[in-house]
Amino acid sequence: MAKITAALIKELRDQTGAGMMDVKKALTEAEGDMARAKEIIRATGIQAAGAREGRKAQEGLIASTVVEGGQGQIGYAVELNSETDFVAKTPQFIEFGQEVIDDVAKADASNAEQVDAAPSKSGTVKETVEEAGALFHEHVKVGQVARVEGPRVEIYAHRKSVEMPPSIVAMIATDEAGAQVAHEVALQISAMSPKWLSREDVPADVVESERRVATEKSQAEGKPEKIIPKIVEGRLNAFFKETVLLEQQYVKDTSKTIGDLFKQAGGKALAFARLEVGKGDEEE
């Protein structure tokens, strides 16, 4: 029997695209014989995983959880993509999502690289995802990742229909007082897709770009030169009201902003995140 080395495993993985655990099993069954191990992999349909890599995976689900942390609570959310919604809504895929988010929380992962490296029952989450591709016969991948932390974290998971898993997850971290309105704010985040928490969080280059566009648009409209600065400021304020969470109008009472909700509660919003299936690639 040939010795099953790390180099042998890597070689077979490179040639077949199969997951590490599948390669190990095949080599063990084949007693280290590469040719026989390839036959075993082909017979179980695992080799197709490599070919799936080039296929688009823009369906799927958002898995999320809140755990207790040293300074309060931590919320995690991970996008797991499949090629079809048919696979995404299966109990097996939903269970796979729960397995991944549990591993993510245990590893305190906050980005895709950390998620891939997080320990799992298959070795790492990356290997778990590779094995999922073989199981579901589709390209499966990790998409967007988010982590928020604060004294309290609220999560709202939105489903497009009852038979589908969550396709949008909104998370908001608040202080204790802010938790009174956190659920309503999570609904707002889900529906209105803010990009930044406060005006101060908007990058300077984004503000400058918006100011330049507003100025050029005002000039093209033939506005009097002396009132253009005022018009530009008005358009900038409109931009902030659309994209900044605390400045958005509260959808259930447009006489108030989200910032007003927190003031009335005597609390603060600390951080938020919004993940939607299939949107990560669009934003890159």
From TrEMBL:
GO MF assignments: translation elongation factor activity
Domain of life, per lineage: Bacteria
Involved in Mg(2+) ion dislocation from EF-Tu: region residues: 84-87
Family annotation (InterPro entries): EF-Ts_dimer_sf, Transl_elong_EFTs/EF1B, Transl_elong_EFTs/EF1B_dimer, Transl_elong_Ts_CS, UBA-like_sf
Pfam families cross-referenced by the UniProt entry: EF_TS (PF00889)
Keyword list, A-Z: Cytoplasm, Elongation factor, Protein biosynthesis
Compartment(s) of residence: Cytoplasm
Translation elongation factor EFTs/EF1B dimerisation domain span: 76-279
Gene Ontology CC, one term: cytoplasm
Protein family according to the UniProt entry: Belongs to the EF-Ts family.
Function in brief: Associates with the EF-Tu.GDP complex and induces the exchange of GDP to GTP. It remains bound to the aminoacyl-tRNA.EF-Tu.GTP complex up to the GTP hydrolysis stage on the ribosome.
Protein name: Elongation factor Ts
Organism of derivation: Bifidobacterium apousia
Gene: tsf
